[in-house]
Amino acid sequence: MALRHAVMAALLEGEASGYDLAKGFDASVANFWMATPQQVYRELEKMEADGLISARIVEQERRPNKRLFSLTETGHETLRRFIAAPAKPGAIREELLVKVQAVDAGDPEAVEATLARRLEFARAKLAGYDRLRDRLLDGRTEEDYVRSADRIGPYLTLMRGRAFEQENIQWMERSLEILRLREKR
């Protein structure tokens, strides 16, 4: 999958500036696709040149004019073709796992410290996903939301992001427990 598909998926929410897309990327698609603001801006330029998105200028007082992007019909068709194509299975490619795999050859305390930092990061990320879920549900039950929401995709990917971080937390807590047990022997 290319970054452009994630940007097109984000634009399904409606017209957005590059700034809004880059900022909102964390809240909307970061649970399954990471990109820096610079990567998003570069991709927007390429997508516009390829006719997948169009931009209109909004004049602003006391601030630079901004460009609002939206999907073109070509962009919608490209996204439909992408959706229809079989998805390739994902694979774990994680630097942390290489460090854990090699813990016996190096400094177990350094690996523990790395795991502890990542554990806090995962907890914070899960808390952010929980806040996003609360905003989406807006006091409704999940069942009510599923029946009434205009778009269900963002909620489904949010559920996957939450499950991913919950599993990360469980694995890191257990790994730290095992490493600490081994230190005592």
Any descriptors?
three-stranded antiparallel β-sheet, Arc Repressor Mutant, subunit A, 2 domains, 185 residues, mainly alpha
Explain this structure to me?
There is one protein chain. The chain is mainly alpha-helical and 185 residues long. It has two domains: 3-84, Orthogonal Bundle (Arc Repressor Mutant, subunit A); 95-183, no CATH class. Helix content is 65%, strand content 8%. It has eight helices and three strands; from the N terminus they run αβααββααααα. The chain has helices at 3-11, 18-28, 37-49, 73-84, 95-101, 108-137, 142-148, 153-183, and strands spanning 16-17, 53-58, 66-71. A three-stranded antiparallel β-sheet has the order 1-3-2. β2 and β3 form a beta hairpin. α2 (18-28) crosses α3 (37-49) and α6 (108-137) packs antiparallel against α8 (153-183). The radius of gyration is 20 Å and the shape is elongated.
Shape: elongated
In angstroms, what is the radius of gyration? 20 Å
What's the rounded overall pLDDT mean? 91
Task: Sketch the major β-sheet.
Answer: 3 strands, antiparallel
Number of helices: 8
Run of helices and strands? HEHHEEHHHHH
Topology of this protein?
Layout: H1 3-11, E1 16-17, H2 18-28, H3 37-49, E2 53-58, E3 66-71, H4 73-84, H5 95-101, H6 108-137, H7 142-148, H8 153-183
Antiparallel strand pairs: 1-3, 2-3
Short synopsis of the structure:
This protein has 185 residues and is mostly helical. The chain is built from eight helices and three strands. A hairpin with a 7-residue loop joins strand 2 and strand 3 (66-71).
